[in-house]
Amino acid sequence: MDYAFLRREGIRQLERMTGKQWTDFNAHDPGITLLEQLCYALTDLGYRTDYELPDLLANGGGDPYESLHPPAEILTSRPVTPADLRRLALDVNGVKNAWVELLEEETLYHHPERDELSLSAEPSPSEPVMLKGLYHVLIEATDEAGDNGTQLRASVARRLHANRGLCEDFAEIEVLEPQLVQVDATMEIGPMDDAVQIRFEIIRKLADEISPPVPFSSLEKMLESGKSFDEIFDGPRLEHGFIPDEVLENATRRIAINTSDLIHAIMDVKGVRAVNQIQIVREDGSKVLSSFRVASRKVAKLDIKRSTITLMREGKVIPPRAEEPTAVLAPSSASSGGGNSLALPVGRDRNVGRYWSVRHHLPALYGVGELGLPASAPPERKAQARQLEAYLMFFDQLMANYLAQLAHVKELFSYDSPETRTYFTQSLSQSGLDFGAILPPQNESNVLSKSLEASGGTGADRDVERKNRFLNHLLARFAEEIDDPGTSSVEGLTQRKQAFLRRYPRLSGARGTSFNYFVPPGENNRAGLEERLRLKLGLVEENGESFFIIEHILLRPMEGDNQQTVPLLAAAASRDPYSLQLSFVFAERGRFKKDAESNEEAKRLVEQAVRMETPAHLTPYIRWMANAEFELFQAAYLGWLEELRAYSAERFNVGLEELGS
């Protein structure tokens, strides 16, 4: 875009290339005039290339972001940590607070001398086995949820199981019963303070201290806090806004209620000068002056109706007014957030591809502009003008094609566009300039189109190959790669890459997420890892190329297994065959048949991909089954899944009619 630099560099190259043949590089020289006009045209190309990206993508109209995943999709992920699962539970309507705890219970025993696993420590010697990957979810309901804990538990179960991690499961989801806490307190306020408002704020502070709410934040508030987009959208996508880490850390479950903490909460209220007396009253009427222990399976909640908040001013009690509220409810955490969508800049169609010939800018004396030459000009002069027009036409066509390429940048970097062309050209036809006079009729629309094709720039095969290089560039932006082990056509490879990029928010964010066993298995209910492998390996289901992922944790003992008189597992291969382990069962069909050509190489590539794609904290096992054996396994596995679905739906009170058949 630096005209002076381009002109200076052009003259330097002319001096180097022409030697003694061209000695006059002053401004009056026609060659320098041509150089200056071409440099000016190049600055225009640079100026248009530097348009804002939304403007470039909006060329020709349409949605400029149709091939770009929005921030709320591409920056978020499925749950990875217990804190992520907690956020998802908090996002369910009716949940005031939630806690996701790792289950640390010894549920199994390994008998090393007999290589057996059982639910009993006898006969000894035995070693306790603590399974990993199991969660215990505790829920505190809002006042709006009422006493319908069964329905709330089912809602949380549906949300969490739809986002369950690989080799993880929810052992229990429990809605805690409230334990009402009665507080009697007396405090001194100032002479000019509003007693009604102070009493209201004190009750609110006490309620929040005893049972902390978890407010959601809007995108605007998160941006005001100085957080980056990566930090804001880190974690699962929520419907009600965002929950900052510090808010989540402060909303702990109160195991004990200390009167000292209540005093600090009261003193934070503007207008309170001193707390004269405070005590907690148990249900039996006994009084606690220092610390009150909350029952293990309950959650503390301020008993507003029975609590007594006495305000004093200059030693005199201020009686409550009749119109003062008798109940103060903390705002529902699910309704205090806001939208989480980001307003994207509007793109303006700048007509990027429009090209204005260099000939328009040359002096009229040259006879190549709109005025042309007078009719009285001799034939030799007209021929010279035509020669100059033909000479300039190659510059014009190259720059016009550059702008045509720039105008199609949205298609070039699109994962949805059916367009396979990667070189774009355009006609030089412009009002006032007769290009037809210097072009053969059959090639008038584009002087370089045939020469480009002849030189290897275009053509169906070359277009698809170059389209794949564009898709490789897009994949590389996500540090992804899809190889072609010679199992599919170039067109098939292109379609796989496009499908991978199209589904990338899920394939990336859900790479450690399993399927939802509440819902029948199918194309829309697969583990993220399974989807990644199917696309990366190019498995053709029509040829029977299929596999299943078995999560060992789902095979753990369930309710009712304690009635067995035989060991749960005989000839156990390890002390803990359940935790953080999964098996991939592949069918020896299609290109994986035993008698298929390159069978072993195909299997090797599959096993390599499985080990590369499986999350590092999980141990994968790979099994190959012949066709008949795989058919039997498939029938048994799908039958077991149906039993697991029915068992789990009953356990969490989730009706099967809600989930589909």
Question: Could you characterize what this model shows?
Answer:
With 661 residues, the chain is of the alpha/beta class. The chain has four domains: 95-177, no CATH class; 178-214 and 251-331, no CATH class; 353-458, no CATH class; 489-659, no CATH class. Helix content is 36%, strand content 15%. It has helices at 3-18, 30-49, 53-57, 71-74, 82-90, 149-161, 195-210, 219-224, 229-232, 245-250, 259-267, 379-407, 409-412, 449-454, 460-477, 490-502, 504-509, 528-537, 599-613, 627-651, 656-659, and strands at residues 95-102, 108-111, 116-118, 127-129, 134-141, 169-175, 177-189, 256-258, 272-281, 287-288, 291-293, 298-302, 308-313, 316-318, 547-551, 581-587, 619-625. The strands form five sheets. Strands 7, 9, 10, 12, 13 and 14 form a six-stranded mixed beta sheet that branches. It has a three-stranded mixed beta sheet with strand order 1-5-6. The protein has a three-stranded antiparallel beta sheet with strand order 3-2-4, with no helix packed on it. α2 runs parallel beside α12 (379-407), α7 packs across α11 (259-267) and α18 packs antiparallel against α19 (599-613). The longest helix is centred in the middle third of the chain and has 29 residues, at 379-407. It is flat. It starts with a helix and ends with a helix. The model is unreliable at 330-335 (pLDDT under 50).
